[in-house]
Model the fold of this input.
Amino acid sequence: MIRLDRMNRRKLLDQFRLDRTRWFLWFPALIGFGIALYFTLPVEPSPLWMILPVLPAAIFFIMRNRGGGPAFVVLAILLLVSLGFSACLLRTFIVEAPVLQKKTVTELRGSVLEKSTGYKSARFLLGELQFERGDRLPPLEHIRLTSRSNFEEVHPGQIVRVKAVLLPPPDPAYPGAYDFQRQSFYQSIGAVGYSISPFTVIGENPGLAAHLMSLSAEIRARIADFVLSHAPPENAGFIIAIMTGDKSAIPEDQLDDMRDSGLAHLLAISGLHMGMIGGLIFFAVRLMLVLSPYIALYYPVKKIAAVIALTGLAGYLFVSGMSVSAVRAFIMIAALFVAICFDRTAISLRMVAFAAVIILLLFPESLISASFQMSFAAVFALISLYEQIGPKLSKFARSGGFIRRALAYVIGIALTTLVAGLATAPFALYHFGQVAAYSLIANLLAVPIMGLRVMPGVILSFICYPFGLSFPLIIVGSGIDLILWSAQATASWPAAVQYLGSFPVVQLIAITLIGLWFIIWRQPVRWAALPVLAVLLLSFALTRSPDILISSSGNLYAINTGAGQVYFSSDRAERFEAERWRLVMGERVARQPPDGFLCDPYGCVLRTAGDIIAFPETMGGVETDCDRADIIVSRIPAPENCRKAHLVIDKFDLWREGAHSLYLDRAGSITVETANGLRGDRPWVPIRYRTRPETTRK
Done:
């Protein structure tokens, strides 16, 4: 029996050895594990941990000539995990900047670094800040400011003076929600706000680094102004988004239609846009070069086209503002053209893994962003798919006439959309709590238009813009009209959006590992992922939404009615939070309050099977509820000696802890989660949140 077990174990290990060439594909996953470990810590580790990879690297170097035994593999794993962890520490150290702690009205001067233009307002990124004397503000590095007055006169590179209301970056909408303060931290943005006076331009920024940054922003701003002046308002925002990456001019109803139809990915400069731009330039240049027999015979036409396409992509990246998502897409597509230049396989999982490693080491915070997760999930799944069926589909297309080629194209688009949709669905569901039911149909209609009409028009628009020619915008706009029509049509169909709610991050990690296991391995061991996936899917039935959500201000709370609906205390207060809550709870909005919910001028009371939950609105209501309620949720201060209540959440608790989630069990126990309790003592969390009392539980 023991001998049989050893033989089975040896056969299992042999499968991994036979797939040795695919071990490298696990590198980004292991680096990502180290990054995830950093972000899950409740306290910030010492910067000394940045030297963590030194020891495994030294041992790895010493053992490099001793074969690839299990100890060598374990050491390599430790090295990669520690690299991810150290990359986070280094990145945090580089970007760390002061954060505003409370709302402030001040007069300031600063250099305009970026401008996002809309029809009625503009959003600016300001740096090199100086504040009015007497204002005790931290030395903020960057702020993001929205303005509705004379924003047309302000351009990147200028130094301006303005009076503004500044606030700390917004905290999570609910416990475990996307952390905007963390996002702002890694952009060195210490405050957000809005102007309350016109801008006064007082000079120009002469610095070289600032000049390069402002040059990119200035080109984007001028392209946006040009498009707003020459394109119809109904598609100008879409054109600006795909040319410069700025989505601020897109009408809200269009954004909703694009999200609900599953076409929102067309609005963000990503691998799809970079791939289309690079591919169009590559094939156009190659076609022009081969028209000359002499050039085709004596020059490496393919490599010349790859270099020109790469140069064009670099220009597109510069104009797009070099956001993390755009840089990530550029690295992925650039790896493809570099591979062509060195006569290597252009599209492979190894190239994608290499790009992922670079991005994770340079921008480790991108691991926890939806765009990184969804783009790499789609690319990994698609390349794996075409590794299997690509040769067969190409053979089918070449073996017939126009009809077969057209059919092969439609099959390719359908498979691409289906596989990409399935690969990104878990991440979309986790981050947004919804799934577009007709995404496949919408993408079948829109993606060919995007590739054959819109993006060629975009390239022509870039070429013609320096000469002031706007006719290519007509080509782009006509294609966008068709895309918007398909988005509006599919979004209006019955049950177009399925609000399924989010789920714990542990399940997302498990799904990711199962997907990687199935994609990376080629030996029969890959099929072990399927039964594990089946068990994981069954666990989703145990996922539970909060019974009550309370905003950090206390002005809004939501109650899960238990009848497939959620009741909001207000339809006006904190609409952004309400929308995010609806996604995470995955419920329809209830027009009537739940059973047992009664209100009077002093507040509201919810009677459940085990508890009386009070939501007082006045000080008299708080005092009354202290004598009768088991749980008190108050946006005003509550007295310390509430006699009956065993859980009190008042204004100060919400101020310190942020949004609250309550889970009520039939047995009478209560579980409380807070937004800041889950975040811990981290540099992106404002100071007032870092010292907290223990979470109250019954």
Remarks:
- The two ends are 51 Å apart (CA to CA).
